[in-house]
Amino acid sequence: MSTKICKNCGETVPESAKFCPYCKSTEFRNAQEIVTYAEPNIIQKLFYWQYDGQFMLAKSKIAGISVFLLLFLTAFTTPVFGGMVLVSIIFGLLAFLVPYLIHYLKGKPSKAKLDYNNYGLITDLKNLAFYWQNSRTGEYVLAKTKLISFAFFLLFTAFAMTLPHFTIFSSIFVGLVFTVPIFVVGFAIHKLTNNNPTNPPGSKKQEKPKIKPKKEKKVFTKPAPEISNSAFEGYASQLDSLKKEYATKDAHARELIEKKFQPPQITYTKFISVVDSSKSLFNSEADKVENIISLASEESPRIEAELKEKFKNLNSIIDKLEDLTNELVLSLDSTKEDDVEGLLGDMENLIGSIKDYE
Predict the structure, then answer these.
(1) CA torsion through residues 319, 324, 329, 334, sign
(2) Which of 71, 94, 194, 200 could make a disulfide contact with 88, Cβ separation 3.0–4.6 Å?
(3) How far, in Å, CA of 41 to CA of 139, rounded?
(4) Residue 194 CA, distance from chain mean position
(5) What is the band of 170 on the pLDDT scale with cuts at 50, 70, 90?
(6) Per-residue pLDDT, 256
(7) DSSP 222-284
């Protein structure tokens, strides 16, 4: 099955898709090539994360390096230089690991955010310090929370420096102690009220600057490997067979119900209603299987497990409909309705359990 790549979120979708099912974008690029990018420079290695040749400023690296340097410089003002160096390394690692864990759990950033990064270290640091970035569009919006936090940091640091026995480093520490809670509260409010901010109408967007191309290694491309879809083709064939089998049994069941219970009897309405619900549920499950088959780009244990569960549901619906048909045949010349009524209850329970699972 030929595929293409969504330019907005980077997900792989079928070639026939008119829009991306993950982000609704209508812009795609060719998936039939793999690009080998040049090696990142020393600045990118130290301060950025790399995603398929694109770079984004690494907050965890910035935090770790900043804490290490701040504490390391204080070592020159204390009599226990060796001990302070060790403390600098320990706290620098902690400052790196906590944001890195958040970075790892969040996964790859959106394509839009990556496209509007890597302007240069100074510009990227300025954007990190004073702006929020919209994850859907990549747009930068001035962050009031960050500006207020920065102003309070300068205020408390300057105040601490006027006190006796306070060095520049201890004053910075005091500024951070008072500023961090202010920033955390503002950040929480931002996330809850406007997680993807936009600039006011008519304001000028921050454009990505034109950067002179650097001499880097030549970029090569090679054909992408073909994805085998033989397993999905087998599922598609199996689904077609089940749909034909269900259509035959559904028609037979309706014919028998009309023979046994003439409309508009209440019993006729009850039976037909359950058969209608059964048909609706079967079609819904079949549509979900078709969506998985058409959108999945490769096999995986999770997809296989989901398909098996869907096919189990489809077979259960068919089996119950067949049991109902058989009981209707046996009861045509009988006055006993218990078996048929009991089976009808079983079908209702099956329909309810599948819907609850969904």
Answers:
(1) positive
(2) 71
(3) 26
(4) 19
(5) confident
(6) 80
(7) EPPPPPP-HHHHHHHHHHHHHHHHHHHHHHHHHHHHHHHS-TT-HHHHHHHHHHHHHHHHHHH
Q: pLDDT-based confidence at 220, cuts 50/70/90?
A: very low
Grade residue 297 by pLDDT with cuts at 50, 70 and 90: low
Share of the chain above pLDDT 90, in %: 0
Q: DSSP secondary-structure letter at 194? A: -
Angle in degrees, CA 256, 272, 312, rounded to 5 = 90
* Higher pLDDT, residue 88 or 168: 88
What is the C-alpha separation between 218 and 222, in angstroms, rounded? 13
pLDDT for position 347: 64
What pLDDT was estimated at residue 215? 41
- Residues 280-291 pLDDT 10s: 888 988 888 888
Q: 124, 49 in Cβ contact below 8 A?
A: no
Partners of 142 in beta bridges = 131
Tokens at 274, concatenated: 């359950």
E strand or H helix at 158 = helix 144-161
* pLDDT beyond 80 at 354: no
**Residue partners of 320: CB distance under 8 A and separation at least 6:** 278, 343, 346, 347, 350
CB 318 within 8 A of CB 245: yes
**Partners of 55 in beta bridges:** 50
For 4, list phi and psi in degrees, rounded to 5: -140, 170
Structure tokens at 69: 């340097």
Name the DSSP class of 218: P
> Which of 145, 120, 122 has its CA nearest to residue 132?
145
Which residues partner with 51 through β-bridges?
54
- pLDDT confidence of residue 350: 61
Q: What is the pLDDT of residue 231?
A: 53
Find tokens 């950025």 and name the residue.
Answer: 48
CA 38, CA 220: separation in Å to the nearest integer? Answer: 9
Q: Pick from 170, 186, 171, 176: which is nearest to 153 by CA?
A: 176
